[in-house]
Amino acid sequence: MPVYVVDLYGSLLMIIFAFLSIRQVKRLRSENPQNVVWIYLLWLCYGLAGFAVSRSVGHIVKRVFITSGHEYLWLMLRPYSGAVNTIMFVVVASITLFFERIWKIYEHIMEDRRALKQAHEQLLYMNKHLEDLVTERTKELALSERKYRRLFEISRDMIAIVEWNGRILSINPAGLCMLGWGDEDVKVKFFQDCFFNEEDFREVWKRLKMDSEVKNYECSFIRSDGLKFEVLVTGSVEVESERQMLHFWVKDISQRKNMERKLIQADKLASLGQLAAGVAHEINNPLGIILGYTQLLLRQCEEGSEVYDDLKVIERHVRNCKTIVGDLLKFARSAPTQKGEADIHEAITEVLAVVKHQFMLDGVAIKEKFDHSIPRLHWDINKMKQVFMNLLMNARQAIGKNRGLIEVETRLENGNVIIKVSDTGCGIPPENLPRVFDPFFTTKPTGQGTGLGLSVSYGIITEHGGTISVDSEPGKGTVFTLTFPIKEGMNESYEQ
């Protein structure tokens, strides 16, 4: 009897333990579904559970049939129970045999997984490193762009990016200021619109097409207000995004050119001064003798006679020669400058008082436009009166026999005293403008001018630290502009 009890309860415990094992393995597998050991144990527990159930059921049924006197039924079922047990043994054995192969596969899978994980980590590191490199490079590019953008914006020379058809893609503020353009002008204008002469534009384009660059090409540009100015053009062909762009750097050399002209003028004046002093001394004495003897002969001749008239012609021409020689001496040996406190408006008014009456009789009106905020200046006022007289007389002669207008304007502008003398006369041809300050250059008829007035005025103005310029258009008139830095002409008391 105890054996039967042990068999019965042992069978039941086998079933219970088998299913508890299944439950435990399922829990472990749920925590790590990829672990092949748990998978193996789970199937092994399934096999053991099947075997436990089959064996336990067989033993229990056997005892029930034998005890109840139905042993023949057990004899009929016993082969089936044995077959089931055999199958369970085969299943468990198969699982165990195949586990080694599955384990090797699992090891390969895990090895590949580790390799993939390592590759993934390396990829993440490289990606992070690449992001850092990209971020750093982006910062460097942004810094470089800001630096060159700053240079582009603060440059005092024009910088422009242009297409081959002349369309301006970008131009810096200095370029807009140089041309007198606004932001809207860039949208409708082309680079060729900057050139004063179309031939210069064609030459620049020709050099770019032949050599892919042009260096320091000297030409003239034109502002929106029509003012012409000299520039140096440097350009190159660059490839951007598979597209050819033209990069230009344009430098305004107007001031340099003006300075060169002034240096040439000063050199001319210095050379001529030395020559004039020697020539004047050599000629002045003979002229004095000729004039003296001519006047003696005039006293001895009867007025109205042919000889008397001839002597008067000689006297007139000798006096003209002495005037020219006198101007030469003044030019070569100017009197010392004696500067003092002076009101330029008083000086101009005094000069106008001398000429105004005669000008009005000739049909020439004078218009005054004074800026009385100009302070008293430290000048040699007598020399400045000579300058004003020369300019007014030149303006009067330019008007000729026609009616006209002479305007004298003064104003303060950017720390400078500006004096303008303009007329509505015949104007000066463009080819003569560069020579108007040359000594002895004149377009007046013989006997009406020596050609030294503007040269002397130029020297006086330079001596006072100023500049003189001329703008003229044939048939419309001429404007002489005198510019004096106010610091040059201010007296000490005013500065204090």
TrEMBL record:
A GO biological process this protein is involved in?
A: regulation of DNA-templated transcription
* SMART domains found in the cross-reference section: HATPase_c (SM00387), HisKA (SM00388)
Q: What is its EC number?
A: 2.7.13.3
Official protein name in the record: histidine kinase
Which GO MF terms does the UniProt record name?
Answer: ATP binding; phosphorelay sensor kinase activity
What the entry lists under InterPro entries is as follows: HATPase_C_sf, HATPase_dom, His_kinase_dom, HisK_dim/P_dom, HisK_dim/P_sf, PAS, PAS-like_dom_sf, PAS_fold
Q: What class of enzyme is it?
A: transferase
Write out the entry's keywords from A to Z.
ATP-binding, Kinase, Membrane, Nucleotide-binding, Phosphoprotein, Transferase, Transmembrane, Transmembrane helix, Two-component regulatory system
Q: So what does this thing catalyse?
A: ATP + protein L-histidine = ADP + protein N-phospho-L-histidine
Q: Which residues cross the membrane?
A: 6-25, 37-57, 77-99
Looking at the record, the residues that make up the PAS domain are 144-186
- Annotated Histidine kinase domain ranges read 278-488
Query: What high-level taxonomic lineage is stated for the organism?
Result: Bacteria, Pseudomonadati, Thermodesulfobacteriota, Syntrophobacteria, Syntrophobacterales
Could you tell me the superkingdom of the organism this chain comes from?
Answer: Bacteria
